[in-house]
Design brief:
Length: 226
């Protein structure tokens, strides 16, 4: 019997661009590091409220830095991030409840599509400056990620059910219990211990905890393991 795979839980919200960076890195490394990656859609607004935190862009200096940092991080991580034109409307007014309920329903019904649909929603809001709140926007993302129109509509109907709403709430509360005060949060279960890491810039530390090699945010296709 071989070694049991180490488990990583990634709590994320598509409203968070740094969650996108962490998401892509973990998707790239999961096979290289022989880890079981569990994607956990959560609601960043709920985590911020529970922890008493505030969006960094609420402070002018942090907001200015955020634009520059995301541009450089996008280049470094090889993720096509572009700042939305109406940033405050996207982040503070429209939010992500509908999108995250859809991803929650997807995780419950069609988990094999969760990675692709999550990525497409990030592409909409953080690369193409498109809406992610209206039903047609969510359906468009799902279909572009490979879902049939019929399946996508059926899943969208489930987002209004208590089961989906409760699951999103429970996942958000789980992140808070781990100590989350924002997103992304990566929870590593290694050798009987649990480690909570905040942000997309802790991947080298994660590699250390796993006893694995860090080869940058975009590792080469071929590795010593292959």
């Amino acid at each position: 019997m071989g070694p049991l795979p180490r488990t990583l839980e990634l709590f994320y919200d598509v409203l968070s661009p740094y969650s996108w960076l962490g998401f892509e890195v973990l998707c790239r490394y999961q096979k290289l590091w022989n880890v079981q990656l569990r994607l956990r859609p959560a609601l960043i607004a709920g985590i911020m409220k529970d922890s008493g935190n505030k969006p960094p862009a609420m402070l002018p200096r942090k907001g200015k830095y955020l634009r520059s940092d995301l541009r450089l991080q996008g280049e470094h991580f090889q993720v096509p991030i572009r700042f939305p034109k109406d940033f405050f409307s996207v982040i503070l007014e429209k939010g992500s409840v509908s999108a995250m309920r859809f991803l929650t329903a997807l995780s419950m019904q069609r988990p094999e599509l969760l990675e692709k649909v999550s990525r497409e929603l990030w592409m909409r809001v953080w690369s193409r400056d498109e809406d992610i709140t209206e039903p047609q926007s969510i359906l468009a993302a799902a279909e572009r990620a490979g879902m049939s129109a019929e399946d996508a509509r059926a899943l969208l109907e489930k987002t209004a059910t208590p089961q989906v709403k409760n699951q999103l709430r429970e996942t958000t509360e789980a992140a808070c219990r781990y100590g989350a005060f924002g997103l992304p949060v990566t929870v590593a279960h290694v050798d009987g211990q649990t480690h909570m890491l905040f942000g997309s810039d802790r991947m080298e530390l994660l590699a250390h905890l796993l006893g694995e090699k860090w080869m940058g945010p975009a590792p080469p296709v071929l590795s010593a393991r292959l």
